[in-house]
Design goal:
The protein has about 250 residues and is an alpha/beta fold. The chain contains eight helices and 15 strands. It has two domains: about 130 residues, Rossmann fold, CATH 3.40.50.2300; about 100 residues, OB fold (Dihydrolipoamide Acetyltransferase, E2P). The protein is about 35% helix and about 35% strand. A five-stranded parallel sheet has the order 2-1-3-4-5, with helices on both faces.
């Protein structure tokens, strides 16, 4: 039996998916969720094979919810028009349902998923979709992280700097720091280059937080931030800084 969860903030949309699924005796709906917070709990509890996931939801959107999962299940997205999402889906092997969708279109998406599900792991394609979607305007303005059982939404304006930490990136703010299971290269692509600059292979800083640049040992330099932290600057970082600060 295939276990499914429906996550959508619109009750009518959840009801429609559930009605369409009634003809599939091999699929059991384990939970219906109103937002990404409820969705996370339900996924951890039921370990579903498949999600029917809305993208535009309050609190955190569908992509942000998936980022918080270590091993996300397969997904069929349900969405109103979203330029970045549609581009992501069209470029990779993950299906989506554009609202409003018919039973015929729903059946087509589900049969496509079943064919792929029986043959291979869909997670690589899902990861590529999420990377493409991370460049959307909304996701350039905030970062969502999980801290224990809490979900923290960090506006990018609150970020002082980012620091590489093994397989994670440590996001430093005035209120504390949090870890995100991403690479520095990911944030270099996601964050606005006019507001954040990678000054070292292990550091990216909020340009508005810079107060001073001092020489340090040979050709290297140190950045002093408003918060008092000292950030090392590499040779390549110095070239970028000169372009920005000039």
């Amino acid at each position: 039996m295939i276990k499914a969860i429906i996550i959508d903030d619109e009750p009518l949309a959840r009801t429609l998916v559930k009605e369409y699924l009634a003809s599939y005796t091999d699929i059991e709906v384990k939970a219906e969720c109103n937002d990404g917070f409820e969705g996370l709990k339900a996924i951890q509890e039921h370990q579903p094979d498949l999600l029917f996931l809305d993208i535009q939801m309050p609190k955190i959107n569908g992509f942000e919810m998936l980022e918080l999962l270590d091993h996300p299940p397969a997904v069929i997205f349900t969405t109103a028009f979203d330029e970045y999402a549609i581009r992501a889906f069209d470029n990779h092997a993950v299906d989506y349902l554009l609202k409003p969708f018919s039973k015929e279109r729903f059946d087509k998406a589900l049969e496509k998923w079943k064919a792929i599900y029986a043959q291979k792991d869909t997670r690589p394609a899902l990861k590529e979709v999420m990377e493409t979607a991370s460049h959307s305007p909304l996701q350039r303005e905030r970062i969502v992280v999980k801290s224990g059982s809490s979900i923290i939404v960090i506006p990018v304006d609150d970020i002082l700097y980012l620091e590489a930490a093994d397989d994670f990136v440590k996001i430093h703010t005035r209120k504390g720091h949090w870890l995100k299971n991403k690479t520095m290269a990911h944030f270099e692509q996601q964050l606005d280059p006019g507001r954040f600059i990678r000054v070292h292979r292990s550091y990216m800083v909020n340009i508005s937080e810079i107060t001073r640049l001092d020489p340090y040992e040979k050709d290297s330099h140190i950045l002093l931030l408003k918060s008092g932290e000292n950030i090392p600057v590499s040779k390549s970082g110095m070239i970028k800084l000169k372009e920005i600060l000039s």
